[in-house]
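Q: What does the predicted 3D structure of DUF4386 domain-containing protein look like?
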Amino acid sequence: MRKAWRWCAAAGIVAFTVSSLFARIPGLVACGPTGGLEPIIAFELARTTADVATLFGAEPCTSTLVAAQKTGLLLDGLGFIPSYTAFLILGAIAAGARGRVRQLALALFLSAALSDEIEGFLLGAILDRLPGTPALLHGLWWAVHVKFGLLALGTIQIGAILCNTSWRRRIAAGIMIVGGLFAFFGLVAPSAGTMMQGFLIAWVALLLTALVASFWPRVFSTDS
């Protein structure tokens, strides 16, 4: 399992590094109120064409934000989605997923990644014809909610797999499960801030677990 944890840690470091790059995209500043959300998340969670129009405001801010969002979509599709998907799949494997449980984890995370890529396609289509259409926003709603829902369930599953005999595993597992539940609650509430905090807590816990298990495998071994 040590090798699996190391690969999980490596993928996690890449995912968190790529995630940090979104904040460095030039011009990624909302042109209107976002309810306290980052521009990318506000765009993902837009429900109506009026929401999109508010976010992108008027020129010259509109063109700047459109260009920044397109850069974000490129970074997301080519960097963040593949890296976080690998991170979570490897986390499930390293935690001890076997047989049908492993197949379920793979299905959850690969389906979430596919939904995320579909989301990116729909966001790109909206950017090309601002403020989009009701049909595009309807499709976006489904892609976003399927993605986040599957990621929350998959995150909870990793915690459940990790939760066995060792009290140290149970601590890490409990944090992941609680984070996943917060993420799922935030999705259905809806509360985007709660959802994102839930994912952050759970995924940081998984990354720290992977790092510790990479160097001290007995800490999270199934025999301890």
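A (community wiki): The structure tokens above were generated from the sequence. The chain is about 80% helix and 0% strand. The mean pLDDT is 93.
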